Amino acid sequence: MTMPRILPSLAAIALVAGCASKIDAPTQYDLGLLPAAAIATPVATTAATILPAISLADVNAPAWLDNNMMFFRLAYANQLQPRPYASSRWTMPPAQLFQQRLKSRLAQAGGTVLAMSDAALNIPLLRIDLDDFTQTFDTPSHSVATLQVRASLFNGRVLLAQKNFSRQATAPSADAAGAASAFVAANDGVIDDLMSWLATVAPKK
Predict the structure, then answer these.
(1) Class of CATH domain 37-201
(2) What is the CB neighbour count within 10 angstroms for residue 152?
């Protein structure tokens, strides 16, 4: 006797579930393929012949960047408020994107990168803190991607060198896709600068 009442309820639940499954998943972005070695910048190419072997620690990031959201700021409205895109995401948190890109670029340039757990005692340790990874709009139609990192090179507990690196790149469009494109250029620019720095400050064998 209760079946006629149950069936409409089940049909309603199925309809709601079906509608929920049709919600579009967020569009995901990463930093794309590596630039071809043949078109690497002169700085990176020169540094490649003298890059030292290093141990790379996990890249640190502030808590608000420790997720896969794509953040932007409206400098003309409230630059103190980072805002996430509603339907766009990174494939992984920015710190991991940068770390993956750095390891790949170092290997491409002929360097040797070891995890902390695998490194020998005489291998310098590179620690990187990610300070900014946001798109900033100065007008509704113009924005730049800003990447800021702080690199510290250690020999055991001794700090050998430390330097801040920063790059900005203009986004080709005023949206998340434009931000992703600009961050490719910003990341590769910072990594070029970082590799050149490593080649001059790391201990020579």
Answers:
(1) alpha beta
(2) 15
Single out the residue of 27, 145, 172, 143 nearest to residue 88, CA to CA.
Answer: 27
DSSP summary character for residue 11: H
Residue 155: both structure tokens together: 């020999």
Report which of 50, 44, 92, 42 is spatially closest to residue 194, judged by C-alpha positions: 44
Q: What is the pLDDT of residues 14-73, one digit of tens each?
A: 333 444 445 679 999 999 999 876 444 444 444 445 788 899 999 999 999 999 999 999
Q: Which segments within the chain are labelled E, that is strand?
A: 27-29, 54-56, 69-74, 78-90, 113-115, 125-139, 142-155, 158-170
What are the residue boundaries of the structural domains of the chain, listed by start? 37-201
Secondary structure of 84-100 in the HEC alphabet? EEEEEEECCCHHHHHHH
DSSP labels for 50-77? Answer: TPPPEEEPPPB--GGGSSSEEEEEETTT
C-alpha–C-alpha distance, residues 26 and 176, integer Å:
11
* Backbone torsions φ then ψ of 104, nearest 5 degrees: -65, -40
**Residue type (1 letter), 187:** N
Sign of the dihedral defined by the CA atoms of residues 159, 117, 56, 107, in that order:
positive
